[in-house]
Amino acid sequence: MINRLLLSSFLILLAACGSIQQLPPKPPAGTKTTVTPPVQNTPAQVDMGLPGEIGINGGATPQLIPSEETVRLGDRGGDIFTPVDESTTIGQGVSKKLRIGLALGPGLYRTINYVSLLKFLERQNLPPQVITGTGFGAIVAAMYATGMTPEVIEWNFYRYFKEKKKHRPYEESWLEEVDSLLLEKLKGKNIQDTPKKFYITLYSMKTKKTYYFDKGNIHDLLLLNLRLSNMVDLRKPGTQYTAAFESEVFNAGLMKRLGVDFAIGADVLGTKFDFEESNEFLIGVYGKTAGRIVKQKKGFDYFYSIPVSKMSLDSTENGAFYLLKTQEYVEAQSGSLKKLIQQKLSSAKAQE
Fold first, then answer.
1. Is the separation of the CB atoms in 120 and 329 below 8 Å?
2. How far apart are the C-alpha atoms of 287 and 61, rounded to whole Å?
3. For residue 18, is pLDDT > 90?
4. What torsion do the CA atoms of 138, 93, 344, 255 make, to the nearest 10 degrees?
5. Cβ neighbours around 97 below 10 Å, total
6. Residue 350: what pLDDT?
7. Helix, strand and coil in the chain, % to nearest 5
8. How does 124-141 read in b/e, with b if 16+ C-beta sit within 10 Å?
9. What is the pTM of this model?
10. Which of 7, 13, 86, 218 shows a CA-CA span of 20 to 30 A to 234?
């Protein structure tokens, strides 16, 4: 009887011990330990059109030479209607009468300052109905054309600034990083499907001409827009196109032919710029580009030369400060802008 009781007690104790997790051995003194937090159920997230977590899912190296099928010219033009909220602003009722166009120049990371201009134009009921850009300005334009608000565009840039590594602009590793961190949400989107009229300008090394793409894959065209002429090997298929700003930055005449009534241009490059890491080649490229801007900005109804020369082209520091300074600058120009728009409206009314 006693033996049976002892056996039963031993079995119960053994079963209880089986549910106890064995503790890991105590690490030696001075050894750092990593505590793994308990797994929690994550609630479903609402898709706000923002990028997913970066760097979690691995994958093959992005294809940085798009297939030629995704790059094609299409019919230009088209009509866009954008509803306007009635309020006491510069553009009260204006965008029902005037089609606003906006062209954004290059400038690498300085182009985040275009967000302040977009916010201002929207607050004034002057949202661009036709938009384009070159270099990084094309990325801002593409994001806006596909439906991202200025706030979401700003968020995307800040996230890129936070996650990016110290790659030199226009190196292959830099292009891969821009592709994976900044262009992620533009994959699979086509120019002809954007809510706003949008086109990308590229330069052909084969024909030595500038082309305006209003059809094609946005992601692939933007990658080509981030290649300079010294990166092209014409012996390889699909490599003839490069950044247009090495040949042409702005073309206000094309905007007018697309039906734009009031064309606005914007530049953050200016005539003073530098890089955090010395790069004589890029200084030369952007120096020639600055000269083109001086000549090509004259065809616009209004042009913003945004004064952010103290921000290095490859700097990600003090973004909020420069956004605020840009906001102050564009707001200070509101009187001049209002006067020119009123003149344009009066001229259009006189011709009716």
1. no
2. 33
3. no
4. 20
5. 14
6. 75
7. 45, 10, 45
8. bbbbbbbbbbbbbbbbbb
9. 0.75
10. 218
